[in-house]
Queue: 4 jobs
Job 1
Amino acid sequence: MSVAPLWPPCLGLFKSVVITLTYLRRNRIQCELAETFGVSQSTVSRAISRVGPLLSRALEDFVPTVEDLDTRVQYIVDGTLLPCWSRRSLYSGKHKTTGMNVQVACTLSGRLAWISDPVDGGRHDTFCLKESAALTDHDPANWIGDKGYVGNDMITPIKKPAGGELVEWQERYNRQVNQVRYVIEQAIAHFKNWNIMHTDYRRPLRTFRQTISTVVALHFYQLTVE
């Protein structure tokens, strides 16, 4: 009995990998890739569908898990939305669009330490962080976040009281927290150099989680070899 190849035979492994990486990096339309490589759009789609999971599995050892986070290290965390075409169940009121939320943690020096599994974009950052179990074995007081994490015993800016204003020392404290937090925004921006992570996802929603896992694996691998 013949076994179906893992990638389109007319492309071969090398071109299938190139197409997949180009798609993930630039989020190019599949018909454009098909024209570039002289094949059909369906062939490009099959290459991406089959090679993406292979890349994810091949590079999974480079991806830190929650268990790899050091309890002695202070981390900065923030959530970011990875957009996809409008699906009402994934709508984020905060971002005014649809997508999936991942939690991103880095060290005080800005070294990317961890990216969570995706959660539906309609969920709050606090829910997503708890869902990831990142704080289960960690002292929340060693973690820094924005106002979306208030109430988790983390270091966060102070919210304005209802109908009131912050006093001077509270404003100064908030500025100091935000001055530390800027490195997580840089880490997220670097991750989103993969265009597929910051522009609308056009493939079927059922493939989005796998695509996110593939890009996370590629990104951590890239950081390792840089």
Job 2
Amino acid sequence: MKKTLLATLVIAVTSMSAAAFDLDGADRYKSAAELGIMEGLVVDADKQVNKDNAFQVAPYNRWAYQNMRMFYPTSDIAPAEEAINLERAIDASVKNVMVDNGKGEMRTFDQFMTETWGDGIVVIKGEKVVYEDYRNGMTKDTPHQLMSVTKSFGGLMALMAIDAGKVDADAQITKYVPELKGATGFDGATVQQVLDMTNSMDFSEVYDDPTSGIRTYGAVLNFTEKLEGIDYPSSMYEYLQTLGKDTKHDHGEIFHYQTPKTDVVNWITNNVNGSTFQEGLESLWNNIGASGETYVLLDGNGTPVAGGGLNATPDNLAKFATMMLNDGEFNGEQVVPKAVVDTLAAGGDRDAFGNGPDASDNMPAGEWSYRGQWWVKHTEGAEAFMAIGIHGQWIYIDRDRDVAIVKVSSAPDSVTPAQELYDLNGLDAIVKHVSK
């Protein structure tokens, strides 16, 4: 089955000519500095990053993903009152890992990082960082655009609200967001269905159609141009109330990955917690001893882009991944209830996943599912749950083998089957090596 773009807020942007770069040849894997992007006091026009090309246009994203707040409004996520440093016990042998690139060719770790446009990777075993590698100007303390990895943080907060008894997962969504009565893409669906993206919603992700759902969504967020003659909703929340049901499917029948569902999950959590997405992240950041700079992109109304706006450092993401790997415990404190982590690891409805449009050769029916805004792999001996964002963003948790990996990238394509397989092969090869 054809797979839609993976795990992100995908926004159609105005393509900018990349004629100055040979992206199919010698320039394909070069860093932003090697390409001269944003280098010097006066930057040549064809090497200038701006709002039109920062989000998804290669190779400008090689620089932009470490500098997103220069182009979009943002809100800070405050660091912890007291920073906690992860212990490091570096295993240099990780650099000797060989990775199948998906074409049957074994590539070195260095080639894997280069050929997947990796900007940084952190490998955790137990409670220690055992390997890290940074490229393209990245450091462990550089915030990086995470795309739809953001969704998984919102999903986690919702699961914690359910665990705390604030939300009934089997209740209809309109119990917590009455404004959605009549919006048949949500009305009649349960909280769990929206959380797992199995509610039936009519929302097209056709990027070359300026009137499609995803283009309208982007325009409402003020991330894409508004067309003349169209009366757009004034806010994301108003837009969500206009979304109807996919008449071909009932709620709960199939998994269909669609970004506005995440906004509704966040709406529920905000209502029951009486706090914002930023405040929820700040509480989590405080509990894991996060330090330095973290921020989230805002739409034109100052609303956090919970579907794909988080920018965080590899070091803070490694602290988060360490906590999730260790059943929600970090530095002797239970940050996330173990039952919540168990729920994620158990996964969602495999039949709904397999019957939907997002199953693929890389994520086949029966072996994958989606639960609480996280992707779950059920392959025997290699079970894992993960947060994924386009252009190569990963938080990969394998509790059975006691290994977690954070990888941030600036790949030129949002996702391709070949690129996705190469990353999946690389992450599994690293887990196998470290868990020996």
Job 3
Amino acid sequence: MGGPPTTGRYMGWWGHIGSMPQKGVVTYALSPNRQRPTAGMMHAAVFNTFRRFRQQVLFFVPPLFVAYEVMTWASERNEYLNSKAGRAEAGDEE
């Protein structure tokens, strides 16, 4: 029973491709994803978020810092140019 028969045509071991279809045998299986779909979800969320943040922080923070500094400089310059001293420097005295 362990190997191919010595006479006739060998069609493969039971259940392998090439064997004749078995009748009356039903097999049910459940995917591992359906058994525990949220297994390790919170652990992965914390560590994946940290990993992604660490990898992307240098693409996000320097431009944000530069934009903040430019806006601060522009606001201060605008306030100065609209002050009495700024108007006197620009020569817009009326």
Job 4
Amino acid sequence: MDRRDFIRSSVAGGIGLASFSQNWFVPAAEFPVERITDGEHFHWFGYYDKWQIDPTGRYALGMRVPFEGRTPEAKDTIEIGLIDLQDNNKWRKLGTSNTWGWQQGCMLQWLPGSNEEVIWNDTVSPDGWGTTWGSRIVNIKTGRERLLPKPIYALAPNGEFAVGTEFNRIQNLRPGYGYAGRPDPYEKEKAPAEIGIYRINLKTGKSNLLVSLAEMAALPHLGESVTDYWHWFNHLLISPDNKRMLFLNRWRHKVQEQDGVPTTDFITRMVTMDTETGQNRYVIDPSGNTSHIIWDGPRHILGWTKPIGKEWGFWLMEDKTQNCVHIGAEAMPVNGHNTYVPHTNNKWVLNDTYPDANRLQTLYLYHIPTDRRVVLGKFLSPPQYKGEFRCDLHPRINQQGTRVFFDSTHEKLGRQIYSIDIEKVVKG
């Protein structure tokens, strides 16, 4: 569906959903919302656990595409751009990618500690490697590029290495989180030993397998075998000290479609392991319920789950133990995309919600010591934005911890990127 038709259907579908549909959002008066993209194209950034803003706070990264409302195909290319927040939000093209999805984009982000280099996944053709999926590192000042032979999923905070997994496997078993255009060569195997999670050196491009799907499938789940299921990995994150990482091992019965749409039922366990060797693995959340997660220092993880014998909520879990503490039981009662605000000693959490009964997505801050919740705004998501094509807010924050950025569809312009200044709250 092209831009004009999609906007028309989105607007029509949104009328009557709520009494404030003419405004399309309920702002908190003290938090003005600024759109930083032009509204002439569809723009977004994607996931919540990556640096969108450079260390100086001046430049934001974004992606641009001319259509919405369908699954990307191998021929569909997105434009990668740099937004100058100090020059009328001017957009500058950095490159393109044809390895992307609606939820996590192409893993676009700044290299940790750098205000010059950004990285994203793309189809690359380096000498000796042939045409393959890989990643592209671009210097925004010189335009110089470096190509890596594998796509990345998460970067180490020290900027020296990344971890990744097979995106065609993800697309096969969880459409929308992988990339189209290259079939999974192991699609007939439930848990192949040849693929899994790899570590890649960001300077040399050398990689090694840390854990295979076969190894995890061989590990029983709550005393029962899971070897007869179809396995994949998702949501990789490296600890702040670069020594440990977490990942979600997910499995399901063979993909079956209902009315042409793949079923989405699956089981999840969250696992941690050493980033150097892939050893010292520990199933930190065996409940089967792990959703969004973020590291809290090198030994703890804050995530939405329902630990065995406990209620749903955001739980602070201690690595290599089953110790956990419920955080924000009343203030954060529903699932969202949670991160910590930098330079607040992890006392402030930035979070959002999925659309409620009125299709409103709430963007908010939560102060752990005082159990205080500060709503930044509520944003309408038209009913067309659902499933793989949904536009979650996926809130991100700049590296100074003063400004929130998020994707939204509330302004009748399709998905765009917005910003809110929160300095007076978290620094007050």
